[in-house]
Design brief:
It contains seven helices and three strands, in the order H-H-H-E-H-H-E-E-H-H. With 132 residues, it is mostly helical. Strand 2 and strand 3 (94-99) form a beta hairpin. Residues 26-125 form the HTH hxlR-type domain. Pfam families: HxlR. Keywords: DNA-binding, Transcription, Transcription regulation.
Length: 132
C-alpha cells in the first residue's frame, strides 16, 4: 500500500518554490529588476541632469557602453515606464529621452546614492591616509 506522504525531494521543491515566490514579491527585488544592472542608474542620472538627453550625448558620457547595450537599456527603461522616447522626423534622425513622472520619483534615490558614493570615497581616502 502506498503512503500519501511528501518525500524529502518534494519537500525541498516546495521550499524552493516558496522561497522563489517570496524573493520575487520582495519590493527590493522588483525595484532592482527595473533599475538594476551596470548602466541603468548611470543613464537615469545623466538623463535627469540633461533633460531631454539625446542618444549621442548619452553615448559620449558612457564611453564604455556599446551601442547595442545602450539601445537595449534605454528600451527596457522605456518599456518599464521610467523614461519616454521622442523621435523627430528629420535628417539626421534626432531622438530624445526624458524621465517620465514615475522616473522623476527616482531622482531623490539617485541623489542619495551619489551622496553615499561621495561619503564612501571620502571615508576610503581618510582610511588610506591613516595607513602606515
Amino acid at each position: 500500500m502506498k503512503e500519501n506522504t511528501i518525500n524529502d525531494s518534494q519537500a525541498d521543491m516546495q521550499t524552493d518554490k516558496s522561497e522563489w515566490l517570496e524573493e520575487n514579491n520582495c519590493p527590493m527585488t522588483n525595484a532592482l529588476k527595473i533599475i538594476g544592472g551596470k548602466w541603468k542608474l548611470l543613464l537615469l542620472n545623466s538623463i535627469s541632469k540633461e533633460c531631454p538627453a539625446r542618444f549621442g550625448e548619452l553615448r559620449k558620457k558612457m564611453q564604455d557602453i556599446t551601442h547595442a547595450t545602450l539601445t537595449l537599456q534605454l528600451r527596457e527603461l522605456e518599456r518599464d515606464g521610467i523614461i519616454e522616447r521622442k523621435a523627430y522626423a528629420e535628417a539626421p534622425p534626432k531622438v530624445e529621452y526624458k524621465l517620465t513622472t514615475l522616473g522623476q520619483t527616482l531622482i531623490p534615490i539617485i541623489r542619495a546614492l551619489c551622496d553615499w558614493g561621495e561619503a564612501y570615497k571620502s571615508h576610503q581616502q581618510k582610511a588610506g591616509a591613516c595607513t602606515v
